[in-house]
Amino acid sequence: MSELPTGLIPCSKAVQQLWEYLDRSLSAEDLGRVDRHMAFCRKCCGEMEFAKELQAMLASSEGDELPPHVRERLERFLEEI
Amino acid sequence: MKTASRHAPLRFHVDAISSVAGWSFRGDGAIERAREGTEQVQAGDREAFEVLARENLPRLYSLARRLAGDEAEDLVQECLLNAYRSFGSLHERGAGPKWLQSILVNAFRDRLRKAARTVQEVGVDDIEDFSLYRTIAEDDPLPYSDTLHLDFLRAFGREDIHEVVQRLPAIYRAPLVLCYIDGYATKEIARMLDLPIGTVLAQLHRGRKLFEREMWSYAEATGLLARETSQ
């Protein structure tokens, strides 16, 4: 968005803080600034939705299964401690 | 400040670990002191420890893989050894799984410290301006897509994400994994990694930026998007 109302933070500042905004780890003041920016800037809203998807993807990436041969070695290690 | 997490607070576990007489996880040489053994584990306790450890091997290995990649098995062994020596300090057996996880994170942290001389911090200026969203829009890697950004993400499988995370420098990978994959609050991460909360927040910020940039580099380097286009 090229013309933002006076007093709003620029897009560059808003997108820099997107993950922190989603984590709610910004100060109340900064949260308010990003909120106000998002209310006016459609482009940054798209970027925020993308950041949400990216976070969700990272969160769901857990889980390497324990291979049987590694389990066997770790159980043997346990017995030898 | 992030205060909630999928896990209960770790205060108890960390206190339990640091209360073991004669040694601590907070400095060099912890493993050597663990091997010497400062606490006699009773026969019944040994059995209970083995049951707890066996039950939690998959979870510990999974966390270790995310933190340490190919060194996961070695890290789990170190965790088991440390946990065995301090098992007497675990008074609440129900807290066992998270107690073990925090010991594993402590062991990983000690490794990071030992390797600190070779770790390169990434300057904020190098990555601050990078935006994966904008890069995708500008490069338009999937020209026939109506949902470009989502399709970019959908091209990544679980293994690809694992690989991208493993490519991050360890000091940024650890907070990112603990926060976004394992759901720990930043306060808990700071306690486990024994870092000021401001440092954890800064590492998380850089880690997120690096993760975005690495997603792009990985997609380019592996031809992930070309494969997606040809399907």
Structural descriptors:
heterodimer, A: 81 residues, mainly alpha, 5 helices, elongated, B: 231 residues, Rna Polymerase Sigma Factor, Chain: A, Arc Repressor Mutant, subunit A, 2 domains, 13 helices, 0% strand, disordered N terminus
Individual helix count of chain B: 13
For the record, give the distance between the C-alpha atoms at the N and C termini of chain A, rounded to a whole number.
Answer: 63 Å
Mean pLDDT of chain B: 80
CATH class of the largest domain in chain B: Mainly Alpha
Q: How do the helices and strands follow one another from N- to C-terminus of chain A?
A: HHHHH
The helix fraction of chain A, in percent, is 55-70%
Spell out the helices and strands of chain B N to C.
HHHHHHHHHHHHH
Structural class, from helix and strand content of chain A?
mainly alpha
- Determine Rg of chain B (CA atoms, Å): 20 Å
Task: State the separation between the terminal residues of chain B, measured CA to CA.
Answer: 43 Å
Helix/sheet category of chain B:
mainly alpha
Number of helical elements of chain A: 5
Give start-end ranges of low-pLDDT stretches of chain B: 1-35
Known CATH architecture of the largest domain in chain B: Orthogonal Bundle
User: Could you estimate the helical fraction of the residues of chain B in percent?
Assistant: 55-70%
What does this structure look like?
The complex is a heterodimer of chains A (81) and B (231). With 81 residues, chain A is mainly alpha-helical. Helices cover 69% and strands 0% of the residues of chain A. Chain A has one domain (11-80). Chain A has 5 helices and no strands. The model of chain A has no long low-confidence stretch (mean pLDDT 88). Chain B has 231 residues and is an all-alpha fold. Helix content of chain B is 67%, strand content 0%. In chain B, helix 9 crosses helix 12 (197-222). The N and C termini of chain B lie far apart (43 Å). Classes of the chains: A mainly alpha (81), B mainly alpha (231). The interface between A and B is large, with 33 and 46 residues.
